[in-house]
Design goal:
six-stranded mixed sheet, mainly beta, three-stranded antiparallel sheet, globular, 1 helix, disordered N terminus
Length: 108
């Protein structure tokens, strides 16, 4: 896979938790161009001992195509703090090529 460019990051949201926010979302495709996408974010506002399931979705073609990250290389259950999830996009969607991906991070 080559030439996947992540141009935008969706406003991150959180469900089912009061005052839980996701901020500072950054997504980068690994170099040399391959299908691994690193998504970094800060989860704030939850209790220190609480854990939340993080989900990644992406849209392309001006929002007409939606992709759900199922192949994550690490556990998506996290507590408050700074985190990185790596999505193996080619495992979920072989041969996808796009230059207008928008990544959205949610927690519940």
């Amino acid at each position: 896979m080559n030439k996947l460019t992540l141009f935008a990051i969706c406003a991150a949201t959180a469900f089912g938790a009061e005052a839980l926010t996701i901020e500072n979302v950054v997504a980068r495709q690994r170099l040399p161009w391959n299908a691994l996408v690193d998504v970094e974010f800060d989860l704030t506002g939850g209790a220190a001992d609480e854990k939340y399931v993080v989900e990644l979705t992406a849209t392309s073609a001006s929002g007409l195509k939606t992709y759900v990250a199922k192949s994550l290389l690490m556990d998506p259950v996290v507590g408050p703090g700074s985190h990185r999830l790596t999505w193996d996009l080619a495992s979920d969607y072989p041969n996808v090529r796009a230059d207008d991906f928008e990544i959205c991070v949610t927690a519940k």
